[in-house]
Structure formats: structure tokens, C-alpha cells
């Protein structure tokens, strides 16, 4: 390697290291700010937006690193890469691209959540050791209309899949105790009929070969593409019909003695939604936000996470001054009561 090439690489690595550390500082700092209870709602939203923006920035950096790794491992044909202008901290065009990605991500999230709400039925086993990912993927699954149970590692996943019926298993490939590949081989050897979809952070082009070797039926790469994720759910789960799907409280699975308390909440729920809609129609947004907060909190407390998820979506639209999108979601909140009554019967 000549001196000029070595110098260029050193400049590239210095800039890359700077950008990574800068974005990680933002992610860590704003995440810690979210833990402060005195932070205002506006500041919390700003913190979340900053974390998303920095995360997307990091994803682009990682993609660049992966491209270089592919070249070094001979997984991609060699091509010329101009790194002379890799000065992202002063590149206004690149910064604008990140900002555009942020807004696009927010808009896509809201559109996809509404588009794919309650489109499937079925029972999903999610094998994932990362708690944050457990909550995120579970939210996606519940939004789509399916039920979800979580295993923390491959060993738990094997035990749960063999003892219960699931319509789909989502299997992280890198877990403690027992990895996903080994868990899949055991399930297949035990004639488990549920299709298994691999969840992997491997972004190389030959990922399909790896999932085939592990005997998976399909694969999804991390970070998850939500549209692709919902397409996979629709492929392997049952499409929901026009008939309402019973909405059961998750609390009753382990605490059936709470039945009377849940029933009282269900009968009280229509009045709560009615008051919320009246406040919105009267443009009393201070009262609206207070009532919405109550519905969001009580929905989760009584085991109806779909209510909480919808309330969060409404709040997000309101914060973005997208009031036209609120009314259909209020109607959807109202329609959940019929599904709760069906579960009681």
C-alpha cells in the first residue's frame, strides 16, 4: 500500500470514528433524558426524534462498513469507492438526507400501522433475547391483529413450541443458552408443523442460504422493514374476515380472578371513548389529551394493549398537527368495545 492510499484510509477511519461516536453520544444522552420524569411532553418527543435520527445515521454508516467488509471477504465484486469526500459533519447535503429519512420514517410508521391494523389472526411465538426488540416486535404483531408469546432464548422457544400450538415462530438466530439455528433443527426433527421465520442481523446477500441451512421457512433481516414484516405475517397467518375478532384481556390468562374487574372496565369503556370524541369535536384539545392519557393508561393496565397502541398513534398524529388522521382512529377505538364484548361471551 502506498503512502497516499494509507493516508486516505486513515482520514476515512478518523471521520468514520468521529461520526459513530457523535451519533452514539446523542443516542445515549437523549435516552437518559427520557428517564427524567420532569421532562415535558414536547421535550420527550424531541428526544425520541433525535434518537431516531441518530439511529438512522448510524445505519447508513454501518451499511458503508458492510460494503467494505463484503469486498474484503470477497462476497462482492470489487468496485471503486470514492472516499475523498467522506466528511459528513460538514456535508449539508448528507445532513439533509438524514432529516428527510427521519420524516419519511415517521410518516411510513403511521401509514403502515393503520394499513396493517387487524389484518391477520393467529398465534405467534417470538424467540428474542433483547427486551427492547421483544417489545417492539410484539407491538407490530399485536397491531396486525395476532396474539404473541415471547421466549427469551432458543431453549425456551423449543419447549414452548412443542408444548403449545403456534401458527408462526419468529426465531432470532443469535441468542444465549441455545441459538436459533440449533432450536430450529430440534423443532424440525420433532416434526413441529409451525413455519419458522429467521430473524437475523446478517445483512449479506447470501442470508437466504444461511436460513435454508438452518431449515427456516423464511427470513427477516434487522433492523426490520415493517412492510416486509407485515407481508410475512400475512403470508403465514390467517387473513382476518369481516367478522369481529374477540379482544381478550391478557391479564385473564394468568389471573382469572380479575374477571369481574375486567368486565366493569369493559362496560365503562364506551363512555370513556364517547367523552373523548366529544372533546375532539369541540376542539377542546386540553381535555382531549387528558382523556386520551386516561384511555392509554387504563387500556394497558387492564390488559388491552391494542387500546394503548391506538392511543399512542392518536397522540403522535396530534403532536404532528395531523388532525385529519385522528377521527378514523377514534372510530377504531370505539369499535374495540364490540370485540371486548365478544370475548366475554
Defining traits:
345 residues; alpha/beta; Helix Hairpins; Rossmann fold; Four Helix Bundle (Hemerythrin (Met), subunit A); 3 domains; five-stranded parallel sheet; 12 helices; 62% helix
Descriptive account of the structure:
Strand 4, helix 6 and strand 5 (196-200) form a beta-alpha-beta unit. This protein folds into 3 domains: 3-113, Orthogonal Bundle (Helix Hairpins), CATH 1.10.287; 118-239, 3-Layer(aba) Sandwich (Rossmann fold), CATH 3.40.50.2300; 250-344, Four Helix Bundle (Hemerythrin (Met), subunit A) (Up-down Bundle), CATH 1.20.120. The model is unreliable at 83-91 and 203-213 (pLDDT under 50). The protein is of the alpha/beta class. Helix content is 62%, strand content 8%. Helix 9 packs antiparallel against helix 10 (285-301), helix 10 runs antiparallel to helix 11 and helix 11 packs antiparallel against helix 12.
Amino acid at each position: 500500500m502506498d503512502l497516499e492510499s494509507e493516508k486516505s484510509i486513515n482520514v476515512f477511519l478518523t471521520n468514520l470514528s468521529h461520526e459513530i461516536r457523535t451519533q452514539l453520544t446523542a443516542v445515549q444522552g437523549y435516552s437518559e433524558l427520557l428517564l427524567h420524569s420532569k421532562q415535558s411532553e414536547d421535550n420527550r418527543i424531541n428526544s425520541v426524534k433525535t434518537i431516531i435520527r441518530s439511529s438512522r445515521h448510524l445505519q447508513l454508516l454501518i451499511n458503508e462498513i458492510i460494503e467494505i467488509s463484503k469486498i474484503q471477504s470477497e462476497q462482492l465484486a470489487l468496485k471503486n469507492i470514492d472516499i475523498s469526500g467522506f466528511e459528513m459533519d460538514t456535508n449539508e447535503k448528507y445532513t439533509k438526507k438524514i432529516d428527510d429519512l427521519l420524516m419519511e420514517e415517521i410518516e411510513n410508521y403511521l401509514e403502515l400501522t393503520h394499513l396493517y391494523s387487524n389484518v391477520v389472526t393467529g398465534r405467534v411465538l417470538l424467540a428474542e433475547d433483547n427486551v427492547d426488540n421483544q417489545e417492539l416486535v410484539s407491538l407490530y404483531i399485536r397491531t396486525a391483529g395476532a396474539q404473541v408469546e415471547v421466549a427469551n432464548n432458543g431453549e425456551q422457544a423449543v419447549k414452548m413450541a412443542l408444548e403449545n400450538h403456534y401458527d408462526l415462530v419468529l426465531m432470532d438466530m443469535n441468542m444465549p443458552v441455545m441459538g436459533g439455528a440449533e432450536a430450529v433443527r430440534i423443532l424440525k426433527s420433532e416434526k413441529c408443523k409451525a413455519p419458522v421465520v429467521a430473524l437475523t442481523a446478517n445483512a449479506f446477500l447470501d442470508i437466504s442460504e444461511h436460513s435454508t441451512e438452518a431449515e427456516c421457512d423464511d427470513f427477516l433481516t434487522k433492523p426490520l422493514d415493517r412492510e416486509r414484516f407485515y407481508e410475512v405475517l400475512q403470508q403465514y397467518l390467517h387473513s382476518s374476515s369481516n367478522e369481529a375478532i374477540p379482544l381478550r384481556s391478557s391479564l385473564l390468562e394468568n389471573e382469572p380472578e380479575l374477571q369481574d374487574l375486567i368486565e366493569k372496565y369493559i362496560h365503562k369503556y364506551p363512555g370513556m371513548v364517547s367523552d373523548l370524541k366529544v372533546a375532539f369535536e369541540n376542539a377542546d384539545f386540553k381535555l382531549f389529551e387528558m382523556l386520551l392519557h386516561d384511555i392509554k393508561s387504563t387500556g394497558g393496565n387492564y390488559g388491552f394493549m391494542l387500546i394503548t397502541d391506538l392511543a399512542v398513534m392518536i397522540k403522535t398524529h396530534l403532536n404532528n398537527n395531523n388532525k385529519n388522521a385522528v377521527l378514523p382512529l377514534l372510530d377504531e377505538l370505539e369499535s374495540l368495545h364490540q370485540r371486548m364484548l365478544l370475548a366475554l361471551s
